[in-house]
Write the structure tokens for this entry.
Amino acid sequence: MLSGVYRARKNVPGTDFHHAKELWYPPASEITKPGRLNDVGQVMFYAANMPNTTLLELRPNAGETFTVLLARTKSRPLETLNIAFLGLERCLAPETRHFSDNDLFRRSEAFRRHIGESNYRKWLLIDDYLSSIFGELVPIGGVVAYKRTIALADLVFSAPTVDGVCYPSVATHDHGINLCLLPSKADEIFVPMEAWVVEIGTEALHPTTGEPLHEIRFVKRSKEIDARGLIEWMPPGMGLDPLEIARFTRRRISRLTELPRQATG
């Protein structure tokens, strides 16, 4: 079930986005390269469960500025979707921690008995393969690797009961979740709510774990986006108090209690 999702887009230096449609899915004419689940000219709505996930998926560099859009569900607090979750067994996002063995086909004894031991082993091989191709870190320019996942997406989205595809975010080492919907489904379910401008700082290391981190700075935020999709920005620095940042980030982005260590090349 979903209550909202995040999308991000890189800013041209010195400019702002003024309409939510600029942060929504792009027109087919602007899709000149294949993605994980779309071919050239094929429109899909990509989103993530967290703002840091959608940012890291864009492979940010120090000094770049991004606008992060929060979209909420239209008609109810939670929206139930029929989702194909590929790579669920390796997902480390908090949203998956409530799943029991009976919820996961790989560990469900009932599922194993239902399809039989031979079919279960075949199913594992297929599931391992699908998980691996969705977990592959594709280098910039290595678009050939997307041919397999695009072909699978065409098959999955041809099923009339499937609303979308979820998969762990490689960019977050499987701690985030990506969502892909057909544009019509995204328009049916979500409405733009607010936008925040984030500046990327230098890369550093966590003071205790050594985990690579991106320094981020919240620059400004919008007022609630109106029904026309127009974005009205607050003055820089206004509305960026810790409680509002915690609300926007769902309390998953916080200040370090110690200074980070300098990242080495």
Remarks:
- The chain is about 20% helix and 25% strand.
